[in-house]
Each structure stands twice: as C-alpha cells, then as structure tokens.
Task: inverse folding
C-alpha cells in the first residue's frame, strides 16, 4: 500500500490536500457559492479548518468571495486549469458558444464528465438583470442536469444502471427520482437528440442541451443553454432551434479537423 511508505509529515500533507479537494467539490456542487457554515456542513469539516483552506485557496484564486461578502465560490484559476485540460475542444468550440449565446441572449455551457459528475468546461455568460451564472469547474450529478442526461444518453441502459447504482439522490423537488424514470427520459433524448433539466438541479433555472459527436477521441461533451424560468418557457422553441444549429456547426468543424489529422 502507498500509505505504508509515507511518514507522518507526508500523511499530514495528503490529509490537507484531501480536505481542500472536498471543499472544492462542495463548491463545485453549488455554483452560486456557499457560506463557511455551508461548506463545513457539506464536507463534515470543522468551520475553523474550512476557513484556513478557503484562505489558502483564495490566495491562489481557486476560490473567490461572493460579491455580497457572505460566502465563497469557485475562482478563475480553477477555470483556467479546466480550460487547459480540455484546450483542444475549447479552442474549437468557443466561437460557436459565443455565437449561440449572442443568438439566444442566454448563458451557454460546454460540459463534460469527470468521475460520476458532470463538469462545466467552459461557459459564456450574457449579463442582464436576471441571468444564470455558472463558474467553470462546477460539478453536478448527471441525472439532474441537461448536460448530464445528454451524456448518459450515449450509454446503453445497462451501463447507466451500473454507473449510477445507489447514487441517485434528488437535488430539488423536480429531480428525477428513479432509474426507470431516468431511462424513459434517456430513450426520448436518443430519439430527438435533446435533453432537458427543468428545475431538476437548481430551482428557478431550466436548461436544454445536446450531446456532441466529437469523433476526436477526446471524451464526451455536450452544449447547453441555461435560462431562468420566465424566459426559458417563452423562448424554448427558439432555444431548441439555435442549439441544434450550433451542434451541427461544431460537429462539422470537428469532423474537418479530424479528417485533416
């Protein structure tokens, strides 16, 4: 075992890293940020320990304080690392995300998968009085988001069942609550190519997403549009039309790159 070869100082350092990772994961599950007490509750760490970790992470800009001063959210440095890890796809896709965001005047997200979570790889935010802000690096259970369901739809039902075994816990009152219910949704996504999250991850926020066929062998991705309820339902037909156009344009660009390599 690796731990058998570590001295006390090494083990202490690993414990600190593990706690810092737990704090980052907790913030990743809450894109709008958390208070110190909220982080402590999510991670089961003492508030004093959370404070020290937040102070250290803030120096490196892995986290940042909320504008209200009443909490913390993921910071820009984590986003930069995420973009670097997915630099090939982000470089190609970002112009199309920008065009899509301008067309629908809403927040647009490029998502992928990490472990048993979906993760925001890149996003374009259109500032307006009521907008959805999603930090890069934000994670979420895949069955609660349109991005996650778009990615799950690319797997056989048996693989989905094994992947999410004993991991389905609702995030809101509207979250999918059972595997049979999720599998029905995935069948519909495979049929029409569109995935939806209507307040299943965050109350008041709805999302529509499409999976990307990258053909580049660099992992699964999906594009999503996130909007607050009042605009989502009034613009849904337009959102669906524009995101399909964006998906088609991205896939053509990716295929051209693949053929040239």
Result:
């Amino acid at each position: 075992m690796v731990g058998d070869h570590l001295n006390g100082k090494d083990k202490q350092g690993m414990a600190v890293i593990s706690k810092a990772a737990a704090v980052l994961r907790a913030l990743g599950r809450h894109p709008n940020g958390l208070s110190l007490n909220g982080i402590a509750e999510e991670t089961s760490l003492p508030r004093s320990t959370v404070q020290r970790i937040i102070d250290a992470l803030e120096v490196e800009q892995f986290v940042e304080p909320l504008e209200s001063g009443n909490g913390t959210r993921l910071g820009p440095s984590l986003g930069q690392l995420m973009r670097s890890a997915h630099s090939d796809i982000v470089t190609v896709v970002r112009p199309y995300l920008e065009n899509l965001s301008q067309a629908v005047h809403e927040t647009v997200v490029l998502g992928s998968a990490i472990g048993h979570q979906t993760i925001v790889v890149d996003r374009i935010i259109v500032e307006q009085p009521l907008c959805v802000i999603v930090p890069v690096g934000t994670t979420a259970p895949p069955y609660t988001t349109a991005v996650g369901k778009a990615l799950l739809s690319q797997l056989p039902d048996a693989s989905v069942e094994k992947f999410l075994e004993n991991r389905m816990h609702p995030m809101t009152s509207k979250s999918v609550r059972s595997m049979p219910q999720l599998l029905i949704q995935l069948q519909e996504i495979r049929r029409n190519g569109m995935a939806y999250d209507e307040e299943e991850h965050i109350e008041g926020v709805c999302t529509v997403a499409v999976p990307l066929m990258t053909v580049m062998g660099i992992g699964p991705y999906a594009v999503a549009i996130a909007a607050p309820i009042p605009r989502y339902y009034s613009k849904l037909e337009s959102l669906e039309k524009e995101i399909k156009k964006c998906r088609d344009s991205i896939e053509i660009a990716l295929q051209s790159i693949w053929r040239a390599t």
